[in-house]
Amino acid sequence: MLDRGARSLRRTGTARPDRAPEAGKRTGWARHAVPMTSVLMCRPEHFTVSYRINPWMRPEQATDTRLALAQWETLHAVYRDLGFDVRLVDPLPGYPDMVYAANGGTVIDGTALTARFRHTERAAEGPAYGAWFRAAGFAVHEARHVNEGEGDLLLVGDTVYAGTGFRTDPRAHAEAAEVFGREVVSLQLVDPRYYHLDTAFAVLDPAGGPGAVAYLPGAFDDASQEVLRFRFPDAVVVSDDDAAVLGLNCFSDGRTVVHAPQAEKFAADLAERGFGTVGVDTSELRRGGGGIKCATLELRS
Q1: For the residues 150-162, what does the mean pLDDT come to?
Q2: Residue 287, class by beta-carbon neighbours within 10 Å (0-12 exposed, 13-18 middle, 19+ buried)?
Q3: Where is the signal peptide (predicted)?
Q4: Which of 156, 194, 268, 291 has the most CB atoms within 10 Å of its CB?
Q5: How far apart are CA 299 and CA 233, in angstroms?
Q6: 141 catalytic residue (yes or no)
Q7: How would CATH label the architecture of 35-298?
Q8: Which of 46, 141, 173, 196 is catalytic?
Q9: What is the predicted pLDDT for the residue at 23?
């Protein structure tokens, strides 16, 4: 039987800043055993929206750094209580988007492919994350082509699904295949609101399988939609409304999906499939075009 706190979390589906879910209370939701999840995060101490490099960003509208910090702290606490190994990289003054750690690189089998950003406003983030990878003992490959880390390179089973169309250069897909020795499947993004793959495609079960992902069909061109239907016939197909609150920008350890609480239908679909769900509001970070997954870089040893 789940304890009272776990029953409450399952009922509400949302974590409050003063009450994160308790670790080790997920047995009622477990799909299968998973290894410890290790992630890298960056505190949004300098978060603001002072320029516009995606449709979500509106510099003319005020942002609340304290609220962004509070929401980030809740996400951090949820990860710790889920038993994750959470590591931190120091934020750089003047780089408000550094909170979106997923863009800082891609780490698979102990090797880090550094990010190379398309926009000059974020250029210094790549070297900063690269330095962290080296200090942490990862083998580091300096990117030759523009890629924006796990924003566009997502691992499902043994295959990397790679987005392009707005940020990552398609030549970086071949580079990732070379660096990681994995099959890389290219997916073409066509809706500027979903400029990174991780805003339109979510990995629910990192081990892979037919129902391992969720996605928004309209974010992809026809050929990519055909690839997704063929490879993931049992995928969760997400509505426009749930995608528009960055519901697909979620993070899963294979048992529990941490997601935007505003994506209510998506959360219900996940629960029907046996996933635990925890809603964490990152609406202030969404002003910069990112959410839960953007704030989370998985470190795979």
Answers
A1: 98
A2: buried
A3: none
A4: 291
A5: 28
A6: no
A7: 5-stranded Propeller (3.75)
A8: 196
A9: 32
